[in-house]
Structure formats: structure tokens, C-alpha cells
Design brief:
Number of strands: 19
Largest sheet: 9 strands, mixed
Shape: globular
Helix content: 25-40%
Number of helices: 12
Distance between the termini: 42 Å
């Protein structure tokens, strides 16, 4: 029996009393992935990206482990909710225009002490000041550095369109604007190198593209390490008591941790290990989050149909954004239909061994987005469900 077949047997036994659709997290795999992230971080603390987890119970579990400290959140409303739930040291990874939430933040000493907001433009400070109302708490601020690689004099750009702050001088200028402005305190710098951490470098069947990606990433790492160090020096000249410099992501943990200028690493997707991480040479994780759909039809030889399953991930549309049939091994989508809103035909010889009501297990393309489809996660240890816990959605919250 292969390791995957053994996992399928475990998951089927653990959930035999549960009807699909359902989602589970294999805690043995989750914990092993957490340990691997800590190993790769080389002693630098890991700030957990909440968007990649979207379950308070699992956020608490990972933050209780040595090597993890703090949360990187994705909306201001989520940040305030987490702070009220007892989480501390929450860094909002994206700028916000939520005026109501800013008014709450500025009026509550506990929230203002726990939450740091992201800024890359003085206009964002204006928005916050305009939203304060009667609130006069000092707002903690982090500046985001643009990590993109610019080639050919800037005519070619590789990397996400995020912050406009690219050079040390640009970041230092905004740092001075924050430090001079009453009601704000600059505490950190963040730089997410998505073109390194979030792009697989071993694309199946594409050896030349994979080689080009590895070359790009090696070039980008060298350029960013030098520029990030210069940015940190420039900002520390303005704010000597900067608390942290955050960088990285699951796919680049060990590379980013090797930079002296970086004090902490961001990661989250590596806890669940969705299918997008199958294309990396830098690490190998264990798939920990899966969902099951029930077989409801057998249209013919080598074909079964499961209920639903059309859960595409965010990003540029393409096959790599689709869930993948995982267990039993050997199933594939009908190219004419793909995964559907209400039904999904699956082709392959394993279909002939599946009965009506059997479960087919899938892996989502991206990590926490799976939790937007399910109210609860069934936590599996060994071959038993040991707990069932709510996702954000199960707590009645969908922040985006």
C-alpha cells in the first residue's frame, strides 16, 4: 500500500460516520509542516499568515509552538476581531479603507496596542486621521517595501503590484512623514517577495520554464537582499527603535531568514500545503488540509460523478487554480467540464472501484481559501476525528 493509499484508508475510517461534503485537517501533517517551517527559519520567529489558516483553533495551536510569534492578518475588521479574541501582536498585511474599523482602533487602547496597520502612502494616513472621530489612540504603523525585480531600466517588472515604495529613499521619506505626524508610531517594515515565495520553480512538464523561474528567483533574491538591507538602514536612521523587519513566505523561508536585515518571517500556507506547493524544489511538505465530495453517479465505465467541487482559488485564472482530485490516486477531470458548481465528473480506472456514497478527496489550490467553503474543519489524528472546529465562516465571519 502506498503512503497516499494509507492516508486515504485513514481518512475514510476517521470520517466513516460523516457525510460529505466535508473538510479535514490532518493534525499529524499540520504539526510536521509547522516543525519544518521552524527548521527552515533558522531561529527567526515566524509570524502566521491568518488568511492561510482562517480557523481560530488552528491559529492558537500553531502559535503555542516554539518558533511562532504573532499574526499577519488580511483585513482590519479581522484584525480587531482577533485582538478582541485574545490574540496579540497582529500585523495587518494590506492597507485598509475601513473607516469604521479605524474609528474603533483609534478609540480602544487594547486594540491600538495589539494591531499594526500597513501604510505605503501618506494619503492612507490622511484617511486614518479623517476616520478617527473622537479616538485619540496612537496608531501603530508598518511600511511595505515593493520587492519586485526591475530589469532593463525598469521596463521589465517581475513581482506583484503592491507598494509604490521601491527605493531606500522612497521608504525613508514616508518613514519621516509617519514619525513627524502626531497620532502615529512607525514600528516595522514588511516586504513580501511573492515572485520568490509564491511561484513554484519545478513546473511539471515545463523544464525550460522551470529553469527560467529558478534563474529569475536567484537574481531577485540577490537584488532584494541588497536593497532590503539598504532600506532598513535608511529607515533606522529615522526610527532607530524599529521593532521588526518582516519578510518572506512559505516558499522562501530559508532564503529570507538568511538575510541579516530580516528579523522575522511570514508564513502560513505551508501549514496546510495546498497543491500549488507541489511545484517547489526548496521544500517538501505534507498535504494537511483536504476536502471530500461524495460519489453520486456512475455514468459509465471509468467515470464517476461527485457532488460539487468547483472551488477555484484566487489569482490569474488557469488550471493551476483548480482543486486537484487526490484520493484515490489516478482520477482526473473531464476536460470538457472540469470541476463544477453542482457536479464534477471524474475519469480514470479508480472510478470503477468507487460506489455511490464513497468519498473522493481533493486538495485545494491555495491554503485558507478552502475555509470559505466549509463551516467546520474535522481534525484528524491517526485514524480518528478528535475534534470538529469552526472556520471563520463557521463563526459567521467572511472578511473578504
Amino acid at each position: 500500500m502506498t503512503a497516499r493509499a494509507a492516508d486515504r484508508a485513514r481518512y475514510d475510517r476517521a470520517t466513516a460516520h460523516l457525510d460529505a461534503p466535508l473538510a479535514l485537517v490532518d493534525l499529524d501533517a499540520f504539526d510536521a509542516n509547522a516543525e519544518d517551517l521552524v527548521r527552515r527559519a533558522g531561529g527567526k520567529p515566524i509570524r502566521v499568515a491568518s488568511k492561510s489558516v482562517r480557523c481560530r483553533t488552528l491559529l492558537e495551536r500553531v502559535l503555542a509552538k516554539d518558533g511562532f510569534a504573532g499574526i499577519m492578518s488580511f483585513t482590519l475588521a479581522e484584525s480587531l476581531w482577533l485582538a478582541r479574541s485574545g490574540f496579540e501582536d497582529i500585523l495587518l498585511a494590506y492597507p485598509s479603507a475601513d473607516r469604521g474599523a479605524f474609528a474603533e482602533l483609534a478609540a480602544d487602547p487594547k486594540l491600538a496596542a495589539a494591531v499594526t496597520v500597513m501604510v505605503d502612502d501618506v494619503a492612507q494616513l490622511d484617511l486614518i486621521d479623517g476616520a478617527r472621530g473622537e479616538g485619540r489612540e496612537v496608531i501603530r504603523v508598518c511600511l511595505e517595501l515593493d520587492t519586485s525585480l526591475k530589469l532593463l531600466g525598469g521596463r521589465l517588472r517581475v513581482g506583484a503590484l503592491r507598494s509604490p515604495l521601491h527605493s531606500p529613499a522612497q521608504v525613508a521619506d514616508v518613514a519621516r512623514a509617519v514619525s513627524r505626524r502626531p497620532g502615529f508610531r512607525l514600528v516595522g517594515i514588511m516586504a513580501y517577495e511573492g515572485h520568490i515565495a509564491g511561484v513554484g520553480d519545478a513546473v511539471a512538464g515545463r523544464p525550460f520554464r522551470s529553469r527560467a523561474i529558478r534563474l529569475m528567483q536567484a537574481t531577485a533574491r540577490r537584488e532584494l537582499a541588497e536593497r532590503r538591507a539598504a532600506v532598513v538602514r535608511a529607515v533606522r536612521a529615522v526610527v532607530p527603535d524599529l521593532e521588526y523587519v518582516n519578510g518572506g513566505g512559505t516558499g522562501s523561508v530559508q532564503h529570507t531568514a538568511a538575510e541579516d536585515a530580516v528579523t522575522e518571517i511570514a508564513a502560513g500556507s505551508g501549514l496546510y500545503v495546498p497543491r500549488l506547493f507541489d511545484n517547489y524544489t526548496s521544500f517538501r511538505g505534507r498535504p494537511a488540509a483536504l476536502f471530500a465530495q461524495p460519489v453520486v453517479r456512475r455514468p459509465g465505465v471509468g467515470i464517476v460523478t461527485v457532488l460539487g467541487g468547483g472551488y477555484p482559488a484566487s489569482g490569474a485564472a488557469g488550471p493551476d487554480r483548480l482543486p486537484v482530485p487526490y484520493l484515490p490516486e489516478g482520477l482526473r477531470y473531464d476536460p470538457q467540464e472540469g470541476p463544477g458548481e453542482v457536479q464534477t465528473p471524474l475519469l480514470g480506472s479508480p472510478a470503477d472501484d468507487l460506489l455511490i456514497g464513497d468519498k473522493v478527496w481533493f486538495r485545494h489550490a491555495k491554503a485558507g481559501e478552502l475555509c470559505e467553503r466549509f463551516d467546520v474543519l474535522h481534525l484528524v489524528e491517526g485514524d480518528a476525528v478528535t475534534a470538529t472546529v469552526p472556520t471563520y465562516r463557521g463563526e459567521g465571519l467572511t472578511f473578504l
